[in-house]
Design goal:
With about 725 residues, this protein is an alpha/beta fold. The chain folds into three domains: about 300 residues, Catalase core domain (Catalase HpII,  Chain A, domain 1), CATH 2.40.180.10; about 110 residues, Catalase, four-helical domain (Hemocyanin, N-terminal domain, Up-down Bundle), CATH 1.20.1370.20; about 160 residues, 3-Layer(aba) Sandwich (Rossmann fold), CATH 3.40.50. The protein is about 25% helix and about 15% strand. It is globular, with a radius of gyration of 29 Å. The structure holds CIS-heme D hydroxychlorin gamma-spirolactone 17R, 18S. CIS-heme D hydroxychlorin gamma-spirolactone 17R, 18S (HDE) binds next to strand 2, strand 3, strand 4 and helix 10.
C-alpha cells in the first residue's frame, strides 16, 4: 500500500511514543531496512537487467537473507518444547512474615508480574505435546527486589539424587545416538537400561508411568519446586520449605490411547489449549502453597529432606496456602519471550535460600552455563523477557550484544573516581546475605546413607492410587517395557518392581509374557568397583504413612466444567431447542461448545436458522474434546447415522470414558454404536456410567450432563470389554 509523503515520519514517530520499550507494531507503518532506511521494493532483488544475475551491491537482499540464515538458536538441551504466558502472583495475607523476608510473599498489596513456561523434557522443539513425560513448570517472579525463578516440574520428585548423573539420565532418555529414534519417548532400550541400573529412580518412575505424565491440560497440572529450599526471616532464622502450585480446575489427565492419538491429530494440543483459554478470558489459576519444616526438625523424618527423590507426605506436613498465581496474557512473540526466557534456580531474592540438596547444588551451576551457548553470551539478562523490574547497576561490562550503555569512567570496585558507585547495599536495605549454615566434613565423593531408601515412597505412591490409576500405571510399564528389545533390561526392571509392589511386578510381567524374577537384593550399579558399599547399599523401610490422599488424582477437585470442550454432533435439521438449551446451560457453566458436522460452513436447524459449524468430522476428533452431545432432530440424526466418523466419535469417546449425552432422536445414534449394545446388555451398571439419554423421561438432561462432565472421566467403564475404537 502506498502512502503520501506527508504522513511518513509523523506516523512513524507517533507509533514509537505509544509502544512499550522493545516492542514493535507494524500497524500502519512503512517498511524499513534494519538501519531504518525506508524500503520501496521488497519483491525483487537488484539485477543486471531483468533476466540478468543478481548484484552483490544489493545490501537489502544480503541483510534480509543473512538475518534469515541466523534465525535459529540452539534449542534447550532439555525442556526444548515449551509454551508460556504472563500473569501475576498475589499473596493472600502476611502469614509468611515469621518465616521469610521475601516481600512478594508477605505483602498482600503487591501484585508481582510472572512469566510461566511449561515444557516437556525429552522431545525436541517440534515434538508432540502429549508425550509421556514430566512437564516443566518454571515461574519467573519479577519482584521489586529482583527476579525470583522457581524452576519446577509437575511431579514433586526427581529421577536422580546427584547432579553428576544428570547428563547420563538425559543421554539415556533422549533419542538413541546412532539413529535418533525415538522422538520424545522414554519407551526404548537406553532409558530403561539406565533406569534398571539406578534404583533411586523408582519413586519418580511411578510418577512418570502414572497419568500425571499425560495431562489433560497444562492448566490442570500441579507444580512443585521439587528441591527443598530455605526461607530466611528478618532475624536470619531459617525454615525448610517445599513449594507447591495447586490448579483451581483440579488435576486431570487423558487416557494413554488418547494421548497417542492426540499426538497425531493435534501435536500442539496443550499449547493451543493454553493460548485459547487465555484469549477467551478463562485465566488459568493456581494456589501457591508451602510446606514448612523447622530447622530443628531436619532429622525428624524417615527420609532425608535433602534427597530430591522424596516428598513430604501432606499428612505429615500440610501445604499452607500462601497466594494465587494467575495467567492472564499470552506472549506477543514466541521467540522473543518463550524461547529466550532464561530460568535459573539461583535467581533468588532476600528471604529465599538454598539447601545442600546435591541436585539443587548442581543445578545452581548448570542454568547460567547453558544460556551461554543457547543465548550466545553473557548478556542474556538484558533480553527484555529476562530483565528485572528494578534497574541493574554493577561493574560487569561488554561482551556479545551488550545493550546497556554504561556511563562514566569506572567499572571497578572500590573506586573514588566514580564516587564509589555503585555502592554495596546494606542488609537492612535489602542486600542479599547468604544463610550462614554451619558446614563441616571430609572432602568425599559419596552419598549419604540417609538417601539409600529407594522404594518406600514408590510403594507409598502406588498404594495411594485408585484402582484405575494403578491399572494405568501397570499398563504404562507394559507399554514402555514392551518397546524394550533387550530381555535382560526387562528382567532387571520387573525385579526392581517387586520391591515396590509384588502385584504390580506380576501384572507387568504378565503383560511382557515373562515370570517374575526371584526378588534379589537390588544392586546399585552406579557403584565403582572399589567404592565403599556402605554409602550405596539400598535400605528398606516402611513408609511413615501408608497412603497419601494428595497423591491420587481421584481425590482432585471435580466441581467445575469451566473451559471443557464439548462436541455437539449435528447435521442439517438438528432440533433448534435441543441444541440451544444444552448449549446455553453448558456455556453458562463456562464450557466451550463446538459444533461438529459432516461438512464445514453452516447447517440449518429445524427452525431454519443457520448454525455455524466449528469443525467437520474430517478435522474434529473425540480425543480433542471432553464430552459429546447429540441433540435431537430426525433429519440430523439420520444424516449422522450414515456417517461412519460420527459412530467412531461416540465409540472412541466411550472408550476414553467421557461423558456422553443424547436428546430425543440423538439416542438412535448411540444405539447404533458399540455403546448402545453395551447399554442394552448392562443397563444401570458401570457400563452406563456417564451416559445420559433423554428419550422422553429425563427432564434434567443438561444438569445431569454437567454433573457428568465435572467427573472428568468414568474410568470404571474401562473394566468392560474393549471398545472397537
Ligand atoms: Fe533442569 N535444566 N536440570 N531440572 N530444568 C534446564 O536449563 C539441570 C531439574 C527444569 O522453561 C536447562 O535453561 C540439571 C530438576 C525446567 O526454560 C539446564 C539438573 C527440575 C527447565 C538444566 C536438572 C528441573 C529446566 C536446560 C540436575 C525440577 C526448563 C535449558 C541436577 C525441579 C526451564 C535451561 C525453561 C531446564 C539443568 C534437574 C526443571 C541444562 C543439571 C530436578 C522446568 O540447565
Amino acid at each position: 500500500m502506498k502512502s503520501t509523503e506527508s504522513d511518513l515520519p509523523e506516523n512513524n514517530d507517533k507509533k514509537m511514543e505509544n509502544l512499550a520499550p522493545h516492542t514493535e507494531d507494524s500497524t500502519g507503518q512503512l517498511m524499513t531496512t534494519n538501519t531504518g532506511l525506508l524500503l520501496n521494493d521488497d519483491t525483487s532483488s537488484l539485477k543486471a537487467g531483468e533476466r540478468g544475475p543478481s548484484l552483490l551491491e544489493d545490501f537489502y537482499l544480503r541483510e534480509k537473507i543473512t538475518h534469515f540464515d541466523h534465525e535459529r538458536i540452539p534449542e534447550r538441551v532439555v525442556h526444548a518444547r515449551g509454551v508460556a504466558a504472563h500473569g501475576y502472583f498475589q499473596a493472600y495475607n502476611n502469614s509468611l512474615n515469621k518465616y521469610t523476608k521475601a516481600k512478594f510473599l508477605t505483602d498482600p498489596s503487591r501484585k508481582t508480574p510472572v512469566f510461566l513456561r511449561f515444557s516437556t523434557v525429552a522431545g525436541f522443539r517440534g515434538s508432540s505435546d502429549l508425550a509421556r513425560d514430566v512437564r516443566g513448570f518454571a515461574v519467573k517472579f519479577y519482584t521489586d527486589e529482583g527476579n525470583f525463578d522457581l524452576v519446577g516440574n509437575n511431579m514433586p520428585v526427581f529421577f536422580i539424587q546427584d547432579a553428576i548423573k544428570f547428563p547420563d539420565l538425559i543421554h539415556a532418555v533422549k533419542p538413541e545416538p546412532h539413529n535418533e529414534i525415538p522422538q520424545a519417548a522414554s519407551a526404548h532400550d537406553t532409558f530403561w537400561d539406565f533406569i534398571s541400573l539406578t534404583p533411586e529412580a523408582m519413586h519418580m518412575i511411578m510418577w512418570v508411568m502414572s497419568d500425571r505424565a499425560i495431562p489433560r491440560s497444562l492448566r490442570m497440572m500441579e507444580g512443585f519446586g521439587v528441591n527443598t529450599y530455605r526461607f530466611v526471616n528478618e532475624e536470619g532464622k531459617a525454615t525448610f520449605v517445599k513449594f507447591h502450585f495447586k490448579p483451581t480446575l483440579g488435576v486431570h489427565s487423558v487416557a494413554w490411547d488418547e494421548a497417542l492419538k492426540i499426538s497425531g491429530k493435534d501435536p500442539d494440543f496443550h499449547r493451543r489449549d493454553l493460548h485459547e483459554a487465555i484469549e477467551a478470558g478463562a485465566y488459568p489459576e493456581w494456589e501457591f502453597g508451602v510446606q514448612l519444616v523447622a530447622q530443628e526438625d531436619e532429622h525428624k523424618f524417615d527420609f532425608d529432606l535433602l534427597d530430591p527423590t522424596k516428598l513430604i507426605p501432606e499428612e505429615l506436613v500440610p501445604v499452607q496456602p500462601v497466594g494465587k498465581l494467575v495467567l492472564d496474557r499470552n506472549p506477543d512473540n514466541y521467540f522473543a519471550e518463550t524461547e529466550q526466557v532464561a530460568f535459573h534456580p539461583g535467581h533468588v531474592v532476600p528471604g529465599i535460600d538454598f539447601t545442600n540438596d546435591p541436585l539443587l547444588q548442581g543445578r545452581l551451576f548448570s542454568y547460567t552455563d547453558t544460556q551461554l551457548t543457547r543465548l550466545g553470551g553473557p548478556n542474556f539478562q538484558e533480553i527484555p523477557i529476562n530483565r528485572p523490574l528494578n534497574t541493574v547497576h554493577n561493574n560487569q561490562r561488554d561482551g556479545h550484544m551488550r545493550q546497556q550503555i554504561n556511563k562514566g569512567k569506572t567499572s571497578y570496585h572500590p573506586n573514588t573516581i566514580g564516587g564509589g558507585c555503585p555502592f554495596q547495599a546494606m542488609i537492612s536495605d535489602g542486600g542479599f546475605k547468604h544463610f550462614e549454615e554451619r558446614v563441616e566434613g571430609n572432602k568425599i565423593r559419596a552419598r549419604s546413607k540417609s538417601f539409600m531408601d529407594f522404594f518406600s515412597q514408590a510403594t507409598l505412591f502406588y498404594n495411594s492410587m485408585s484402582e484405575p490409576e494403578q491399572t494405568h500405571l501397570s499398563d504404562a510399564l507394559r507399554f514402555e517395557l514392551g518397546k524394550v528389545d533387550i530381555q535382560d533390561i526387562r528382567n532387571r526392571m520387573v525385579g526392581l518392581l517387586t520391591f515396590v509392589d509384588k502385584t504390580l511386578a506380576k501384572r507387568v510381567a504378565e503383560g511382557l509374557g515373562m515370570d517374575v524374577p526371584e526378588p534379589q537384593q537390588p544392586v546399585n550399579h552406579q557403584l565403582g568397583a572399589d567404592a565403599d558399599p556402605k554409602h550405596y547399599e539400598p535400605v528398606f523401610k516402611k513408609p511413615a504413612v501408608e497412603k497419601s490422599a494428595a497423591l491420587s488424582m481421584a481425590n482432585t477437585a471435580k466441581n467445575s466444567i469451566k473451559t471443557r470442550q464439548i462436541a455437539f454432533l449435528a447435521a442439517d435439521g438438528v432440533d433448534a431447542d435441543s441444541l440451544a438449551a444444552v448449549k446455553e446451560a453448558l456455556e453458562a457453566e463456562g464450557a466451550v461448545v463446538r459444533v461438529v458436522a459432516p461438512h464445514n460452513g453452516f447447517i440449518a436447524d429445524s427452525a431454519g436458522a443457520q448454525i455455524k459449524v466449528d469443525k467437520s468430522f474430517l478435522t474434529a476428533s473425540s480425543v480433542l474434546v471432553d464430552a459429546v452431545y447429540i441433540p435431537a432432530g430426525q433429519k440430523s440424526v439420520a444424516a449422522l447415522l450414515n456417517e461412519p466418523d460420527a459412530i467412531h466419535f461416540i465409540n472412541e469417546a466411550y472408550r476414553h470414558c467421557k461423558a456422553i449425552a443424547a436428546d430425543g432422536e440423538g439416542a438412535e445414534l448411540i444405539k447404533a454404536t458399540y455403546v448402545g449394545s453395551k447399554l442394552n446388555e448392562q443397563a444401570g451398571s458401570d457400563a452406563s456410567a456417564g451416559i445420559i439419554i433423554d428419550d422422553g423421561g429425563n427432564s434434567k438432561l443438561a444438569a445431569d450432563f454437567i454433573d457428568a462432565i465435572k467427573q472428568h472421566r468414568f474410568w470404571e467403564r474401562e473394566k468392560k470389554d474393549k471398545v472397537p475404537a
